[in-house]
Amino acid sequence: MRPEKIRRQTICLTLSALLSALGIVLLALGSLFETLDISMAALASFFCVYAVIEMRGGYPWMIWVVTGGLAFLLLPQKTPALFYLFLGHYPMIKALVERLPLTISWVIKLAWLHVSGLLIFLGVRFLFAPGTQWDPRVWYWILLYICAVAAFVLFDLALTRIITFYLVRLQKRMGIR
């Protein structure tokens, strides 16, 4: 192999390990403060955004798997790790889906949200809280669904803005490109 290719792979692997460690720290904060579990999972997924933009290939997926797996094994409270495992790979999905026309991409994104939401619900219901009585009120589930879809759309729009800001302003100032 050529020396520049070896150097790039070494830099990407080292940066991936660093981003995974920072993601675990954020998820640990979410584990300590239970009100921050979803927001810390969203912040930890921003490291995958950086990897999608700068490193490409399998590195973003590697960061997601390592961060989610280690967080699931190490954290005392598993909810942030569960949210990260089911929602943390969204930047990679977003990068693939946004190459399609706008309507099709939003249909796929919302379908992905519904599948991930169902998996999170089933994971919490059967893995972490088996035997717990759930409130059967319909209005509660409708309100939760509306809030989840609204939060997802806002997260997607914010992610698009942050990516655009990074590409237009920060990337040149940081001397990356």
Describe the structure.
The chain has 177 residues and is an all-alpha fold. It has one domain (3-173). 81% of the residues lie in helices and 0% in strands. It contains 7 helices and no strands. It has helices spanning 3-32, 37-54, 59-74, 79-87, 90-97, 102-128, 138-173. It is globular. The mean pLDDT is 87.
Overall geometry comes to globular
Order of helices and strands: HHHHHHH
Main beta sheet: strand number and arrangement?
A: none
Subunit arrangement of the protein = single chain
- N- to C-terminal distance: 24 Å
As for the number of domains, it is: 1
Low-confidence region ranges: none
Cα gyration radius (Å): 18 Å
* Tally of individual helices: 7
Mean pLDDT: 87
Secondary structure tally: strands: 0
Describe the secondary-structure layout.
Blueprint (H helix, E strand, L loop, with lengths): L2 H30 L4 H18 L4 H16 L4 H9 L2 H8 L4 H27 L9 H36 L4
Helix pairs in contact: 1-2, 1-3, 1-4, 2-3, 2-4, 2-5, 3-4, 4-6
Task: Please name the defining characteristics of this protein.
single chain; 177 residues; mainly alpha
